[in-house]
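Input record (Table S2, row 536):
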Amino acid sequence: MAVSLRDSNVEKLGEHVYDVLIVGGGINGAVAAAALAGSGVRVALIERGDFAGGVSSNSSNLAWGGIKYLESHEYLLVDKLCRSRNRLMRAYPSTVKEIRFLTTIANGFRFPPFFVYLGSLLYWIMGRFATKAPRYLSARSLERREPVIDTREAAGGLEYSDCYLYDNDARFVFNFIRKSLNYGCIAANYVESLGARREQDHWVTSARDVVGATRFDIRSRVLINACGPYVDAHNARCGETTAYHHLFSKGIHLVVDRITDNKRVLTFFASDGRLFFLIPMGSRTCIGTTDTQVDSPEVAVTDEDRDFVLANANALLNLDPPLTRASIIAERVGVRPLASRGQGGVADWVALSRKHVIEVDEAGRHLSIFGGKLTDCLNVGDEVVAHVRRLGIEPPAPNHRWYGEPGPDLRAEFMLQARLMELDSLTAPASSEPLSQRFWRRYGESAFGLLERIREDERGAQLLIENAEYTRCEIELAARREMIVKLEDFMRRRSKIELVVRRSQYQHAPGLREACAILFGDQAEARLREYLDSSH
Ligand SMILES: Cc1cc2nc3c(=O)[nH]c(=O)nc-3n(C[C@H](O)[C@H](O)[C@H](O)COP(=O)(O)OP(=O)(O)OC[C@H]3O[C@@H](n4cnc5c(N)ncnc54)[C@H](O)[C@@H]3O)c2cc1C
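Output record (flavin-adenine dinucleotide complex):
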């Protein structure tokens, strides 16, 4: 096989002195890489697992202004998140999509429905009217709109708008990694930082290639710790002390068969008083989330978590038969890394905010990124560039726009070419959208290559795995440019096949074998075995 993009990047990591090395390939690391590389800084990124393999593939997939923080009077945070959401909507019109939220307020809830509606009006105003206006709903009109909601205990409700990530969080993150690569970032997954030390004017990071089991040093002028829940652990490995540190709140989601055909997010207040969502996920529904204070970022879904989510869904919806553990197709679990100043403790926990904090050690030329949300990611990228600049790394192209989908002209050109070759007539009947839309959203300008491939051979547009919404030519493209090392990287993060297709449907599918052959060449059988033998 030809040398892969990842192998070639791993080799380059040890060969050069970088302006900046980023450790961690979740959303914070990915936007830092795209923003720095886009402004011309010589940057490298290492991730010890797969890109977005941590918290950033376990979120609720929402780009939202944080309506719930109005209750804790965090108006500045809501204002900032609304602006961030609007900026994402404008920059990613086919990925960050407005969606209606239908909220049910139960009798005896801490606020009457009309008061909650007034809150949603304030939220809409803070969102600068970028979405459709909210509406107050009686219990009867709630039921008319969505019969699956059990309105027997409902006092009323409301409908308002926010946004969600059409594909999923992990794909959103990977597209920032991909963008950074286009601008010359040297990024590699499955490369772990074992810690770093200052040597004269440089950081020397000791790295381990998890795949090849080799060790090497990476030299950089600035080091950015974007390890998410592991920021404190990595700082300890580097002798960095910080005023902030992380506390953790665990959250889970369960994916089940589609609960309703209406494409809305259903929100309730769960039995513990917290907001609880049912979010459309392709042909499925994703239900969550929990919020449990935990001491360690190493978490798993427990039976107690499952039963909490299932019991709440069953209590709030008209489901016949009710959901049981057997209904679960896939699970997601992660910890929210919450930035906290000082040494923590209970009082600290209560006062926690969901803001991100970038703590800078100027003398040591080191940045630690604490907390944050997917929604706020563009600000994190911009702030990282500004901080790095203050540390003396002058970006050659500071005003270059490093994010966003290609502009409307290129999109129109793509759609024209797709129409002329009748691409959409090749869409599989069960697909949720025409091929042209999907290709453009997932691959932007690289989607032209897919057209070329299908012009050569129409079999490129065939689905390899039923219901997976991934064609042969997309898998070929992924093999070249998406650094897929393990089959799970493809099944769970570049695509969401593992989240929306039952394992029994795909594990013996001939298409899965063919996908492996395309992705891994002569390693196909080994990668497939490794995947099927591991528990997902
Ligand atoms: C249940 C839940 C729901 C959420 N819902 C939303 C939502 O709807 N909208 C929203 O905006 N936000 C949401 N969030 C918040 C958001 O998902 C997180 O804040 C964000 O993903 C954190 O990104 P990160 O890059 O800091 O961490 P991560 O994604 O965890 O990335 C850190 C990376 O660093 C790597 N790493 C660690 N140590 C090393 C090392 N030594 N060497 C190399 N790499 C290393 C890890 O492998 C990991 O991939 C949610 C969070 C949770 C838990």
